[in-house]
Design brief:
Layout (H helix, E strand, L loop, with lengths): L4 E4 L13 H10 L5 E4 L2 E3 L3 H7 L10 E4 L2 E4 L2 E3 L9 H19 L4 E5 L1 H15 L3 E5 L3 H4 L3 H13 L2 E4 L2 H9 L7 E3 L14 H7 L8 E5 L8 H14 L4 E5 L9 H10 L6 E5 L3 H9 L3 E4 L8 H8 L4 E4 L4 H4 L6 E4 L4 H13 L4 H9 L3 H16 L6
Parallel strand pairs: 1-2, 1-7, 2-5, 3-6, 7-8, 8-9, 9-10, 11-12, 11-14, 12-13, 14-15, 15-16
Antiparallel strand pairs: 4-5
Helix pairs in contact: 1-16, 3-4, 4-6, 8-11, 9-14, 12-15
Amino acid sequence: MKPRIVVFSTLFPNPAQPNAGVFIRERMFRVGKKIPIVVVAPSPWFPLQGLLRRFRPHFRPGAPAYEEMMGVQVFRPRFICIPGVFKFLDGFFMALGSLGIMRQLKSAFRFNVIDSHFGYPDGYAATLLGKWLKVPVTITLRGTEVPHAKEKLRRVFLVKALRHATRVFSVSSSLKKHAVGLGIAENKIRVVGNGVDLEKFYPVAKKQAKEKMAIPHTSKVLITVGALVERKGFHRVLEILPSIVKRHPDTLYLIVGGSSAEGDWTERLQQQVEEQGLNSHVRFLGPRPPDELKNILSAADLFVLPTRNEGWANVLLEAMACGLPVVTTDVGGNAEVVCSQELGLIVPYGDSKKLLSAVEFALTKNWDQQYILDYARANSWENRVNILFDEFEKIVNNDKFT
């Protein structure tokens, strides 16, 4: 039997948030070249949502209930989700709100696997749907499972989801270890990291890239790409930037990203830049599509990501594919991506002195760009996709579900 998959995730690109969940699309649309897939991306909703958006314009921006994306059908059923209230029920309401379209797809598309992303609430909702529709479910752990496990009720539903899933994928070994610590059988979990799209991410001549962005050739350029939220740590780079500027007066910091479901720190970061007198040393470039990032990354000398929590940060591999060394924090799977001192430096989270020291060292080190490029190329998507395809085939050919 051939797998036919519903990809189930609240985080997925849409016209209002084109960069949301791009890493899920990158992964699963490649799987979709081998086997049929559709996407169900539940959309949180409550009756006064439109009114609230008048005061918070970026709050849950509207997305179409249906669209076709690169030839793949994407459905966005609504589910009740009141901000800040009863969050432990999100998984149940997500499953309930998605049941109608899932029943239709069971008949019309004849899917035989629900492939969910994030343990809670998405994974829990998927396991409920799998039970109701008698379909096996996979869950991919992506990093939010760490903070969710610290909250008593969410932890209960997270563990239930992982126990009821047929197979658990983890984007990093550290997340697998975390799940085992929650009582999930080790042999149930398979590590399948994300890959890098080498057709979109490759080095452009630095001189050319800098000229295109009107950056002086002598400038030392730092860059961070990601959602402008507290977790990603843009503000931590800004905290140490004055010290870097003292040693390298022509330093420039490129901030690439915008708001996300986690929030929007744009104004706070802009205020921090103003208060520290860094206006001439920082550029806010806003969110950029993946096709543009290779040029921006190639204009930089160092990628910095002092993040608080990650699963497997694809952006690190994307930076390396453009020839950049990386400085990042020892959280999640970061040390698995930056697994050699020839690729970059890992620093303890929250240690600004060591972050400063690492950045200053990295700016003066003579990096072997070819080594970095070769490593990134060895982490292309092809191997990952083949593993996932094999796993899905094993699941649908298990007598229990046929």
